[in-house]
Amino acid sequence: MNAKEFLKNNERDIVALETLLTSIPAIAPEGNGDGEEKKCRALEGWLRDNGFDKNGCTIERFEAPDSRVSAGVRPSLVVTIPGKDDSQRVWVMAHMDVVPIGDPKLWNTDPWTVVEKDGKLYGRGVEDNQQGLCSAAFAALYYLKNGITPARTVKLLFVADEENGSAYGAIWLIKNTDLFRKNDLVLIPDGGDSEGRTIEIAEKNILWMRVHVMGKQTHGSRPDSGANACLAACALSLKLNELEKVFDKRDSLFEPDYSTFQPTKREKNVDSINIIPGEDTFYMDCRILPCYSLAEVLAEVDKRCREVEAQYGVKIEYEAPQQSESPATPVTAPVAQKLAAAIKKVHNIDAKFIGIGGGTVGAELRREGIDAVVWSTLDDQAHQPNEYCIIDNLIKDAETLIEFFAE
To answer: 138, 178, 364, 387 — which has fewest CB within 10 A?
Structure first.
């Protein structure tokens, strides 16, 4: 039986797995949830029922301690399907956790009960990231049910805590296990486009800043007797935004193709219009092309802070609640070329390599010297009310993964 026939014959089973997983909320404590334990247990049961622990295949459970959840741990599962060659393994990494539903009035259906309509499945998590999870599971199942040994050992990783930074998921696994090898091929089916054409191989460096400006409060009619922290903060935010003209290289891999330095959040300062504030706090979200290091960016930030201090007679402190930088996966990397070839062979689509301004768990792997790509065929429904996935995309992605696992 070829891959397309197998997946069509199992379409109802794919929908059933989506339905099972959606029915078990897996929300982090940050979203007032209790973690992934119940969902992980259900998924492990499904895997065992379908033979993923037989004929040399194994299921391993890894637990990151977390006292905030009732289970005391945040579990991740690793499924191994032995291949002809174990010197370079192929990974597919999907996450079990989902985000909260938001305002329930914005949903047309129960978010935790899959509703099938017009070729789509509606429910929280059906696309983010159960589409990738189910596609990977049924691609691997194709090999098991047909007695086919994949070209390389296949590893399916169903991980915890992706939605809140991966401290109890991928990052914990990287720091506390020896699961990954430098030459492994890692595919993360958690981003893409409606055609399944784009393969994400790079991310902009991320710098979030909290900037605290301290001046001297005074009456609104006497600016001469104070130091206006709000005025200084406004001047500094413009100076920091102008860094777009300093770090001005362009890279067509990204959209937009330049580094961005944007003022965003601002905290409350004074309660009355006629008070010149002595303190003002604002935030910056900076997405920087990977050709620039955060160290050189922060050096320029510091220089401009000192300039504003001297000009306005204030004191400025800043901190970076998030700093993230990672190398790109080369276009020539085996994982990138192998995936592009699978997309071309199965769907006759020429893949397009891209970079993104957002952050994914792929950056964590790239920092460890492991080439990773992010890809899927989806309508980008992540975190939205009435989230859906298209059944044909589930099958299309599984078919691509079957080829990806082949010679």
So the answer is: 178
Rounded to an integer, what distance in angstroms lies between the CA atom of residue 155 and that of residue 180?
10
Pairing relationship of beta strands 205-214 and 73-81 according to DSSP bridges = unpaired
Contacts of 371 (CB under 8 A, 6+ apart): 185, 186, 329, 330, 333, 334, 335, 336, 365
Residue 11 among the catalytic residues:
no
Catalytic entry in 18, 66, 97, 325:
97
pTM of the model: 0.89
Catalytic one of 36, 44, 162, 279: 162
Q: pLDDT 10s per residue in the chain (407 long)?
A: 899 999 999 999 999 999 999 999 999 999 999 999 999 999 999 999 999 999 999 999 999 999 999 999 999 999 999 999 999 999 999 999 999 999 999 999 999 999 999 999 999 999 999 999 999 999 999 999 999 999 999 999 999 999 998 999 999 999 999 999 999 999 999 999 999 999 999 999 999 999 999 999 999 999 999 999 999 999 999 999 999 999 999 999 999 999 999 999 999 999 999 999 999 999 999 999 999 999 999 999 999 999 999 999 999 999 999 998 999 999 999 999 999 999 999 999 999 999 999 888 899 999 999 999 999 999 989 999 999 999 999 999 999 999 999 97
The bridge status of strand 73-81 relative to strand 152-159 is: antiparallel
Give 3-state DSSP helix, strand, coil % of the chain, rounded to 5.
35, 25, 40
Length of the chain, please? 407
Catalytic status, residue 162: yes
